[in-house]
Amino acid sequence: MKIPFVDARPGSGKTTHMRDLIQNHICEYRQGGKCLIVVQETKKLLHQTLKDIQPAIIITSSDDLQYSESLEQRIIDAIKSKVVVGITDKMFFRLNPTIYKNHKCLIDDVTTCWISMMIFVKTGSDWNVAMNSICPVPVLGVQNTNSNNIEVKLNLDACIDTDDRLDTLLKRDLAGLKHCDHVIIHKSFLNPENSIEQFIGEEQDKSKKPKMVQLQILGYNDLARYRELDIVFFANNFTNSLIYKCSPELFEPYTGFDFSSMAPVIDNRLKIVYVSERELTSTYAQSPQGKDDIEKFRKYCLNNIQGDYFWAANDIIVDGGFSLPGKRISTTSRGINDYKHIRQAVWCSSLKPSPQEVGMVQQQFGISRTEITYWREIEAIVQFMFRGVLRDKNSTEKMILYVFDKKQAESLSLYSTDIEFKNIGISKSSGKAIGRPAGSSIMTPDEAELSTKFRKYLSKNSGDNSDRVTAWICKEHKMSGETRKLTTREKYFLEKIRAKKGR
């Protein structure tokens, strides 16, 4: 049995259809002893969807980490009472799937199934505490020796007798993973020698730079556990979603709905403006040059956009000083109808995954960086622009979307070919590569392992060890069928080794 999905463009009326489905069948389901369960990303969306539907109850936690057994029991009791129940996607995946058996689940715009995080842990006692909190689980079977991912079992009771910083990090962050079916880490954390030096705050005294080990974690749910349920997923472009790409063999199109004729016609209704040919990344945004360029974009918007508009920017860009007088909305807004009378919108965000997350996801699911970036960033822009007047299928008004870079603009060519570049003085290149510098404290787990081998080479000055390190750097890594190029840091270490040998 496969899990059905409905692929419907934003504004096509899938949520309205879901409301009609509930209204038309609520009595039938209640008489049959069944409950209708609506799952969406936010409490606001649940209230919008279930407005005026009776009897209905929305059960959410004000803080996802404050999940308790009493909250679970409230949901179970509501399901047994055969009312319409609205819960968030996080809560849906936290509960045992058997709770939903014999009931109807409508999953709206839930498109990912993993949580990724990175924590820096000091070597020594902190590392020991962290190891006790993420016990490797050999009992689950023989680990794949060709994989850098190791499955672990969380033991949050071990988060005691440690400093406040680590205690807060472990209890807060790992608590968000404890309801995942599987939790994996990169194996480099198991060796505390794979440490790096990192400044704390503004401290520049090298003697006070602690040795840190990167704890890269990925938690995910086993979607196969849901295949026997009466469940339907609704989303735009579902076959490119990350939840689909994790297990495409589990899904099939649902033929009961056809929204193609209901989707808003946007031909000649969207104009896209961009101001930079340089791609916006988090690293670039936080650099002096990037901050200057983003400020140019902000001033351009202030001087050229007249009337109402809404905008979105992620926190690192807002923290850098980006702000506009229009209405700021989330970069992950979905389904909201509040702004469909507005004809202008500004997007200044980079939602690309970190190299650390990409490495683990590629090995675990075979999903590439390009695929993650498309869904995280480009699909987010699509959802964002459909918050405006494009959402109104009865309107013929044109919407103008302002984005930062050319790649973002051209990635939306499926929706519009009316794309214009505005030259506001942002250069194509600063002459320096924009990315993580060789001395950056943020390494991928593989680079942390490389750093350890490099330090051993320097201390031993062994030609044999040098050859091994060089071979390790130069070997071709196969990822998603493509040969990976050497990273900036790998080139840096390789040049150092070769210089050492040439002396």
Report on this model:
It is a single chain. This protein is of the alpha/beta class and 503 residues long. Helices cover 34% and strands 20% of the residues. It is built from 16 helices and 21 strands. The strands form four sheets. A seven-stranded parallel sheet has the order 3-4-2-5-12-1-13, sandwiched between helices. Strands 6, 7, 8, 9, 10 and 11 form a six-stranded antiparallel sheet that branches. The chain has a six-stranded parallel sheet with strand order 16-15-17-18-14-19, with helices on both faces. 35% of the residues are buried.
Task: Tag the structure with descriptive keywords.
alpha/beta, seven-stranded parallel beta sheet, six-stranded antiparallel beta sheet, 16 helices, 20% strand
Radius of gyration: 25 Å
Distance between the termini: 66 Å
Determine the number of helices (DSSP H or I, runs of at least 4 residues).
Answer: 16
The helical percent reads 25-40%
Structural category is alpha/beta
> Spans with pLDDT under 50 lasting ≥5 residues?
139-145, 197-204, 430-443, 476-484
Could you give the order of strands across the largest sheet?
Answer: 3-4-2-5-12-1-13
Number of strands: 21
Q: Tell me the strand percentage band.
A: 15-25%
Biggest beta sheet attributes: 7 strands, parallel
The averaged pLDDT comes out at 78
**Global geometry:** globular
